[in-house]
Design brief:
Elements (H helix, E strand, L loop, with lengths): L2 H13 L14 E3 L64 E2 L2 E2 L16 E7 L10 E4 L2 E4 L1 H9 L6 E8 L6 E2 L6 E2 L3 E8 L10 H4 L1 E10 L3 H4 L9 H13 L10 E3 L20 E3 L14 E7 L4 E7 L1 H10 L8 H6 L10
Antiparallel strand pairs: 1-12, 2-3, 4-7, 5-6, 7-10, 8-9, 10-11, 11-15, 13-14, 14-15
Length: 353
């Protein structure tokens, strides 16, 4: 660990702080099965009429990084011209890591990641207590519990307690392109989690051994609602392509239909109602958490989320360690932790970028 990273971590431990440097957007959606309309025919190009030449305007300054993509980046892509992807596996199989690295590898083994991290976030919590199984029998004075049940209560321990540290790194200029769909992901965010049980606000001596690879955050740009209004209804979006490639790689997400259209309910304010003809997009989850337990059902879960108003989308790979951090941060973050909201099945949050 560098001295700058240690200093930021110590400050966060003392303040129990959180440093969020990237925006978070929220959208609501629900699934309604609906037959997909047939592909529309390609439009014939318009014949340009000769016009009187005018003086060339002054050149505009180049756009700043991160601005909206050029118009031709979202040119009409009919379904018949979309990439043909591999057949999806019969069941979900979790990714073992990303980019040739395996979940659980220590941060110090990543020699290409720059220091300091982009963000350092810290949370402390007792964690939710596991509810023991209650085995009681009726009696004249009410229900009487067995002795082993009482002993189980005494031995109950919370899940995911103590300190949780999340640090995020990115290599300047490094991106990722899906092999089959060709969608470009930029930037690529590596996530590392550390957890230790203590009430002392000090960095443990073995922090380097505790700080391990626990997730990936892959933001990308896709068509917004405003841009989709200028395209045919059957246009295949970049978000469509990313979800399709994730299905080809890992299997179908939870709650999928053979055929479907995602729609959202109208908002309460009539002035903010979207057109019923607008396309809506769901948040898809692969191997979501089992109820409220932190017990790991899969080695890693995946979430694909999208904000239709801005066109900001993201894919999140998360291990149980990352979920423990988000759960620890949730009750202490004003309005709830956005990372936790995206992971939750019951949540209707949009893209976490």
């Amino acid at each position: 660990m560098t001295s700058e990273f240690l200093l930021r971590l110590r400050v966060c431990l003392v303040m129990t702080c959180v440093a969020i440097t990237l925006p978070v957007d929220v959208a609501t959606a629900q699934v309604r099965p609906e037959q997909r309309p047939p592909p529309l025919p390609k439009h014939k190009p318009k014949v340009e009429q000769p016009v009187t030449p005018t003086p060339a305007p002054l050149p505009a300054p180049p756009p700043a990084p991160g601005n909206a993509p050029a118009a031709d980046e979202f040119a009409y892509l009919p379904p018949e011209n979309a990439p043909v992807l591999s057949k999806a596996p019969g069941s979900y199989h979790a990714p073992e890591g990303f980019g040739g690295r395996t979940w659980g590898e220590t941060r110090v083994s990543f020699d290409r990641l720059p220091d300091p991290p982009v963000t350092v976030r810290v949370a402390w919590t007792h964690g939710p207590a596991r509810q023991p199984e209650s085995v009681c029998m009726g009696g004249s004075t009410g229900k009487v519990c067995r002795v082993d049940f009482v002993l189980d209560l005494l031995l109950t321990r919370p899940e995911g307690g103590a300190f949780h540290v999340l640090s995020e790194y990115r290599v300047p200029g490094q991106g990722f392109r899906f092999k089959e769909s060709g969608v470009l992901i930029f930037p690529v965010i590596y996530q590392f989690c550390a957890n230790w049980g203590s009430t002392r606000k000090e960095v443990p001596k073995d922090f380097d051994a505790l700080n391990r690879f626990c997730g990936m955050r892959l933001p990308f740009r896709t068509e917004s609602l405003e841009q989709l209004r200028t395209l045919p209804e059957d246009h295949v979006t970049k978000y469509d392509l990313v979800v399709a490639e994730l299905i080809a790689l890992y299997g179908k997400p939870a709650g999928t239909f053979k055929r479907g259209r995602v729609t959202s309910e109208a908002e309460a304010n009539p002035e903010e109602k979207r057109s019923e003809e607008d396309r809506k997009f769901n948040t898809w989850r692969w191997c979501p958490e089992a109820d409220r337990s932190l017990a790991a059902r899969c080695e890693a879960s995946i979430v694909a989320s999208f904000d239709p108003d801005t066109g900001d989308a993201a894919v999140l790979y998360s291990t149980p360690a990352l979920r423990e951090y988000a759960t620890a941060r949730q009750p202490t973050h004003e309005g709830g932790d956005p990372l936790f909201a995206v992971m939750q099945v019951r949540s209707q949050a949009g893209s976490y970028r």
